[in-house]
Design brief:
The protein is mainly α. The chain has a six-stranded mixed sheet with strand order 2-1-3-4-5-6, sandwiched between helices. Helix 4 runs parallel beside helix 6.
């Protein structure tokens, strides 16, 4: 108690105390100050403030060396009131005049966000050194007063103080935030002149950070010139490349860092794990995981979170689960990452179960994860049910009022065409609905073909507080898809002009598409030509519209025009590749592939483009190139696998298709309904009836995919090709949904192959009821009757066709030579080389007849004499195209023919004999599959 009184007196009247008391108090003060220094060395801020509180209670103040330490502890702990009280206590003492104390106060107020208080202290300081200037300048930067920081620096220099490393670091931060490249370069020049960046890691790292605001290449150059690098500077460069999306470059820098012998820290590992996740580099990610364990940072929650994401995004869900289970204390980020991993794998049910566990553990689900889950539901076979479960969770957790969640629900129901559910969600959002909510629902109604409701909602929107934007008008335009909608489309165009938004590039593109869809090509072309600065979207839209309108030649012409004005992007190439795929123009497809390889830097890795190339090569007859592209893909998605399975199926390689399906499952890629369509079709074309039926059972029982009409049609085709017509009919009768025309047509085709005219007549009645205007159905039935010699029935059908004004599609074959397509029809003599073609064809026919070829007159479905039948057979379009190929394509190169209809049996036999005669591979793509003729044998093994 006595010490306390004496100490208090000492504080109030220091000059009046006896020397004995001063000595005691001085000894006591040294002890307390020594304690503060000890706690500072241990980085224990709480202990520092506790010690200060004890000192305060007995009336002892820290000295000029420890008082700054107390103020720093206050700043770090956010103890604002304690720091202000300390400031008040020293206000009337000599300590306030100490430059170190003044600097500490400036730093304290700046770090607590009280810049004005810091300025007052700074302006009242009797003595200011470079450290004080730096505290004030750095404080301005911390408080986002960047221009003020630069003005202070100018004042500092005017008062003859030299900037040091701390000053320039703060200035570089300010210049970077202001995007002031010129001033930043001046600071860089100052650093070079004064040697500040040579061996000072902080300055060098600040320079890298500054240039990263403008160009990562310049930052890399600065980094390369640094004579002394450390982990922080390496981290800065790795992070920079990651943030600009150059994930491979970030990983390459990381490897260089290891080679150079630098130690990695938590920051390094966190960024490179994220780069592995984005780039899809699972092997490197696993190696980094091992390195993390060796470095002893495997318990870091941020690192664990990044590892869960990395494994989850790269198809290694089991590894994510193992990591998740190994953590005893989980935070909300870990829970959300694990839920995201389940969602990425399409396991919405498992994700929901984890949501429940998360709630029991006392955590609330992340809105972001809910939104991701709702988006993923669209891709799942059971997605609608899963989406409804997520909605129930949203309501239960009180998130239904969240506009972002509401919009995600709205979008999910819109994607599933559940208009009633979407309208209900919208009604719940009506008071908080934003422009995205209105646009989503309008777009859903337009897509569903509910033009009236879409227009009604659009009119309501105009009356609401939310103004329509260009996307609203684009959504309404999406409902105008035929000539009947042209008047509506024109009125919307007028509204856009009235609202002064008609000049918007996206809207112009939508208007062009609308006019093309409504069969007003003239207006669409005029509108397209009026666009002053056509961007890539405009060009792509017009090219896509021509492709949709089945005008590939105009699409290619427009592509040629575009090349001289705008660089194409991956979407352009995909559009044009679809032309090549449809027309089987392999040479043009190869040119486009070469172009993408040359422009690899611009295109980067684009999975959609890679998949389009695989599809093009597969459908143009070159499975070898399709396999090469597929094997080089860093990431294979469902579309990639589907393209390969479909390709193998078209080429009659059923065993390869099933192997690809098996590899797909091993790769962790989940098949979808399209996968099974391709695999079932592959089995059908290869006669793998039992395998196909097993596959169908697998689809239903293991993958819980509800069969669609297309799957039923595949199974019927599979059974019919295998000769099991009775089983096929029973299968149709057992279908839970009404069979459509494709199912009956598959059965009718089987009747043609196996000449079952009785069943054919029954089936044809059902088929003609469903599609009375499809000439192909009448022709198919006519061919069955003709093959059976029932000419009276054939004549009846031809009369019906004539009376109804129906015409069958003429058979045509074509071949691509140097990217140009040459078309032929039966008996065609319009080609410039016709004389040469017929002369060569006669020679070839004579030669193959000597080797055993006999014209198969059964394939002439006309009631006429044999000589006329032979003459007809001899000039089939396939034979003309093959002959043209023999004349014009150099030896050693396969001759590839394409046909719009199924190849006839006689031409199939001719192809086998010709391939042996001319020692060339002849590839024929007909309406359903490929035939590879080599040395007298066909790849289909005559099963087609």
């Amino acid at each position: 108690m006595e010490i306390s009184v004496l100490s208090s007196s000492l504080h109030q009247q220091p000059g009046l105390l006896p020397s004995r008391v001063s000595t005691t108090a001085g000894h006591e003060s040294k002890h307390w100050n020594s304690l503060i220094k000890q706690h500072t060395r241990l980085k224990d801020d709480t202990a520092i403030l506790t010690t200060y509180n004890q000192m305060e209670s007995i009336g002892i103040l820290p000295d000029h060396t420890t008082l700054p330490l107390v103020l720093k502890a206050c700043a770090r702990l956010g103890a604002l009131e304690k720091g202000k009280m300390l400031h008040n206590h020293i206000g009337n003492t000599h300590l306030i005049d100490d430059v170190r104390v003044g600097t500490a106060l400036v730093d304290f107020y700046c770090k607590c966000g009280f810049l004005e208080d810091a300025r007052l202290v700074f302006d009242e300081m009797n003595e200011i050194d470079v450290v004080a200037w730096n505290a004030m300048i750095s404080g301005c930067v911390r408080c986002c007063e960047y221009e003020e920081a630069m003005l202070l620096c100018s004042r500092m220099q005017e008062e003859s103080f030299r900037c040091n490393s701390v000053t320039v670091v703060a200035l570089l931060l300010a210049c970077g935030e202001l995007l002031d490249l010129r001033s930043g370069k001046e600071v860089h020049g100052y650093c070079l002149r004064n040697g500040l960046s040579d061996f000072n890691h902080h300055v060098a790292t600040a320079l890298i950070g500054f240039y990263l605001n403008f160009d990562v290449t310049i930052a890399a150059h600065v980094f390369a010139l640094m004579p002394s690098k450390n982990t922080v500077s390496w981290n800065a460069m790795i992070t920079a490349y990651f943030e600009v999306g150059e994930y491979l470059k970030a990983l390459q820098f990381f490897v260089q860092m290891l080679i150079a012998g630098f130690e990695c820290d938590n920051v390094t590992m966190l960024v490179v794990l994220q780069a592995c996740t984005e780039y899809g580099s699972l092997d490197l990610g696993r190696q980094i995981h091992q390195l993390i364990i060796k470095c002893g940072i495997s318990k870091d929650m941020y690192i664990i979170n990044a590892l869960i994401n990395m494994y989850g995004n790269n198809g290694m869900l089991r590894s994510s689960c193992d990591l998740f289970e190994s953590i005893s204390t989980k935070d909300v980020a870990i829970w959300n990452s694990m839920i995201s991993a389940y969602l990425n794998d399409g396991l919405v049910v498992e994700a929901l179960a984890l949501f429940t566990k998360m709630q029991i553990a006392g955590f609330t689900g992340d809105v972001r994860v809910i939104i991701v889950g709702l988006r993923l539901c669209v891709q799942l076979p059971t997605g609608l049910g899963d989406g409804k479960s997520l909605q129930a969770y949203v309501i239960k957790s009180g998130m239904e009022r969240n506009m972002h969640v509401g919009n995600a629900l709205l979008s999910m129901y819109a994607e599933f065409n559940c208009i009633d559910a979407a309208l209900k969600v919208f009604q719940g959002l009506i008071d908080a609905a934003d422009v995205l909510s209105w646009n989503t629902l309008i777009n859903a109604l337009a897509r569903k073909g509910l033009k009236g409701q879409a227009l009604e909602l659009f009119n309501k929107m105009k009356e609401s507080e939310v103004s329509p934007n260009t996307h609203t008008i684009i959504s309404i335009l999406a409902s105008c898809k035929d000539e009947i909608s042209l008047i509506l489309g024109r009125s919307i165009h007028g509204y856009a002009i009235k609202c002064s938004v008609a000049g918007d590039p996206l809207l112009n593109t939508a208007l062009t598409e609308m006019y093309m869809n409504c069969n007003d090509e003239a207006t669409a072309t005029k509108l397209f030509e009026r666009i002053q600065d056509k961007d890539i979207v405009s060009w792509n839209s017009m090219i896509g519209s021509y492709i949709k309108a089945d005008q590939a030649h105009k699409a290619l012409f427009l592509f040629d025009s575009m090349m001289s004005k705008v660089d194409p992007n991956s979407i352009t190439i995909i559009h044009v590749l679809s032309c090549c795929t449809k027309s089987a123009n392999l040479p043009l497809g190869q040119l486009l592939h070469a172009y993408t390889v040359r422009r690899q830097f611009s295109f980067g890795f684009d999975s959609s483009l890679a998949n389009a190339l695989i599809t093009m090569y597969a459908r143009c007859g070159d499975m070898h190139c399709a396999e090469k592209i597929f094997d080089t893909l860093p990431r294979k998605n469902t579309v990639s696998w589907n393209a390969m399975i479909a390709g193998y199926g078209m080429h009659g390689r059923g065993a390869n298709a099933l192997l690809a399906f098996s590899n797909m499952l091993e790769d962790g890629c989940k098949p979808n309904s399209i996968t099974f369509v391709s695999a079932l079709s592959a089995c059908s074309h290869s006669g793998l009836v039992e395998k196909g039926l097993q596959l169908y059972d697998t689809m239903v029982q293991e993958f819980y995919i509800t069969p669609e009409v297309v799957h039923y049609a595949c199974v019927v085709d599979l059974l019919c090709r295998g000769g099991s017509l009775t089983e096929a009919k029973k299968f149709i009768d057992s279908m839970p949904i009404a069979p459509d025309a494709s199912v009956w047509r598959a059965l009718l085709s089987g009747c043609r192959v196996y000449s079952d005219t009785k069943l054919a007549k029954t089936i044809s009645n059902k088929l003609l009821e469903l599609e009375p205007t499809n000439a192909g159905n009448y022709v198919l039935l006519s061919n069955i009757y003709a093959a059976a010699g029932l000419w009276s029935e054939v004549n009846k059908l031809r009369t019906v066709l004539k009376e109804r004004g129906l015409r069958k599609a003429p058979g045509k074959s074509w071949i691509a030579v140097r990217s140009k397509l040459h078309f032929f029809t039966a008996g065609d003599k319009s080609h410039p080389q016709s004389d040469k073609i017929y002369s060569k064809l006669n020679i070839l026919l004579a030669s193959v007849k000597e080797s055993g070829y006999v014209p198969d007159l059964r394939w002439i479905l006309h009631d006429e004499d044999d000589d006329k039948k032979v003459a007809r057979l001899s000039t089939h379009s396939e034979k003309l195209a093959i002959t043209f190929g023999v004349i014009n394509i150099r030896n050693g190169t396969p001759i590839q023919i394409n046909k719009n209809l199924r190849v006839c049996g006689d031409c199939h036999e001719f192809g086998k004999h010709i391939s042996k005669l001319v020692q060339r591979e002849i590839v024929v793509r007909d309406g359903s599959r490929f035939h590879h003729f080599t040395n007298g044998i066909c790849s289909c093994k005559d099963y087609w």
